[in-house]
Amino acid sequence: RVPLPTLSEERRKELVKVVHKLAEEGRIAVRHARTDTMSRIKKLEKVPEDDKTRAEKDVQKITDEHIKQIDGLIHAKEAEIMEV
Fold this sequence. Notes:
Helix content: over 70%
Strand content: under 5%
Order of helices and strands: HH
Number of strands: 0
Distance between the termini: 21 Å
Radius of gyration: 19 Å
Largest sheet: none
């Protein structure tokens, strides 16, 4: 076993910044996936406009859910890191 010293307040804040940076990268990846999917939906032929609109709303709903999930994970991890 390797004894690890407890984290200092400064190091905890640095780790929180890293978590926020990684979360933002995750949000960006989700947004890029949404943009790619939306462009593919718009390019579809032989599909009624109502179905395209419904699909776009579903994609947006899924995107919002995933971003909300990322935010929840950020808050949980931040609380875990800042816990003494």
